Amino acid sequence: MTPTSSLAATQFGQRPATPWRDEVRATLRLSAPLVLINLAQHGLIASNTVLLGRLGAEPIAAGALATGLYLLLFIGGIGLTSAVAPLVAEAIGRTADENRAGAGDEARRTVQAGLWLSLIVTGALMPLLWNAEALLLRLAQEPAVAREAGAYMRVLQWWMLPALAFMVLKGALAALQRAGPPLAVSLAALPINLGLGAFLAFGPPKLGIVGVALGTVVTEFLALFALVTIIGLDRDLRRHRLLADLWRFDPERLGRVVRVGLPMGITGIAEAGLFEAATVAMGTFGTIPLAAHAVTLQIAATCFMVPNGIGQAATVRVGRALGAGDRPALRRAGAVALSLGFGFMVFCALLQLLAPRTLIGLFLDAGAPGAAEVFPVAIGFLIFSAFFAISDGVQSVALGALRGLQDTKVPMIIALSGYWGVGVPLGAALAWGAGFGGQGIWAGFCAGLLVVSVLLVTRWLRLSGKPGAARGNAG
Q1: Which end of the chain has less Cβ packing within 10 Å, N or C?
Q2: At what angle do helices 57-81 and 19-55 cross, to 10 degrees?
Q3: Where does the protein end up (predicted)?
Q4: Would 475 be classed as within a structural domain?
Q5: Do 110 and 172 contact (CB within 8 A), yes or no?
Q6: How many of the other CB atoms lie within 10 Å of CB of 138?
């Protein structure tokens, strides 16, 4: 903008453009659909929790155990395949022209490697998921709850392949700054999942907890088919040939995706493992604390979808700036994303403190069997959830910015150290040693996430300040 146009804009009440304001707009434009996609995808799990809550305390507890174990492994798979987004974003930024053949070829090869990886990961994890009941019994869960959780998992496990493939395509389209198609599909999938799950669980089939899982599996296959169809019909996306020659196995590109994605997968497992360990530990205190924990976790996870989407946008914005060699733009992208994530999670923390009963009522029917006992326990857990929400949001955005730099190994070490070196032992000491029970476990959450968020932000500030920034897991 020239000085004259800047003066004219000011005279007519418009603020002149600045690099920072432009970055805020760009981040919001990209993160808004990603946040909505995350909310819609999480809505599949949240709506399942709502349906299970209508079945009673035992089904919601069983669903929490099965879903926690599933997500522990699924998030590891997401981490592995999430390398697709920063690699595609860097390729686009480096060529500075999405129409150039080099960028399109790199994007196609990376997407195909991600889809192959989805298939490999699913095949490796299916035997473990099939035997969830036996695993839960070994972890001292109540037999009736473990039995229902096992039945739920044997259906839910078929969700993994289409869900991972969908995430690969979503990441690639986000890097191309075309988040609209996966958003439209995700929003359409949510009511389908709720309707199918309700029909199969409560309708003529009366499949109960198994019907809820089956509705989600069918919905995800429909969503993947719809997204693939859109990519094939959209003229702008079709020129990238993202789905061409899918049968060709590219070991070199698959190796690169794994090198960048493996630390991301381990990081995801480290965080998800913290929550799954807490869920399993909560089950040893009985069905009521486990049900309260499940509801509280859904509230926290719903809030988390927003900074998670902002972090995904930061991955793309930082990755493009990295490819273009623009360090000021790179630092602006990270700073803007961190500020947005922090601000939103402060709002969420206040909401959890001020309206706990209303939030819990969204996921648990007050008239369902055992619900009256669950409400006061869940309110106590929400106090801790409010405090850990801010750290959780900040660490997610910082992690996304570092992934844009393709810095994944050190964040993995930070996550392992913070979650398992601080959160788990402290939570165990408070839960059993100090006698605080479930609240002690949530206090461990708070401590582990605080350590991780501080270290990740420090890492970002150090790497983004380097003249050459960072690429490929800088030390």
Answers
A1: C
A2: 150
A3: Cell inner membrane
A4: no
A5: yes
A6: 9
For residue 368, the surrounding DSSP H or E stretch is: none
As for how many domains the chain has, the answer is 1
304 contact partners, CB below 8 Å, separation of at least 6 = 389, 392, 393, 396
Which tokens sit at 125? 């994890």
| Residues in contact with 60: Cβ distance below 8 Å, sequence separation at least 6, in sequence order | 49, 52, 53, 291, 294, 295, 364
- The verdict on residue 10 lying in a domain is no
How high is the pLDDT of residue 207? 93
DSSP letter (8 states) at residue 408: -
- Please give the DSSP secondary-structure letter assigned to residue 157: G
Distance of CA 271 to the CA centre of its chain: 11
The pTM for the full model equals 0.77
Integer distance in angstroms from the first to the last C-alpha of the chain? 39
Q: How far is CA 275 from the centre of its chain?
A: 13
* Domain residue limits at 51: 19-464
Helix, strand or coil, per DSSP, at residue 362? coil
CB 61 within 8 Å of CB 144 = no
Which of 137-146, 147-156, 175-184 has the highest mean predicted lDDT (pLDDT)? 147-156
Judge whether 45 lies within some domain. yes
Task: Quickly tell me which residue has 């399109």 as its tokens.
Answer: 104
Lookup: tokens for 325: 């060699």
Structure tokens at 133: 């009941």
pLDDT given for residue 146 in this prediction: 92
Look at residue 13 and tell me if it is in a domain. Answer: no
Each residue's pLDDT tens digit, 303-349: 898 999 999 999 999 988 988 888 899 999 999 999 999 999 999 99
Residue 175 CB neighbours (<10 A): 29
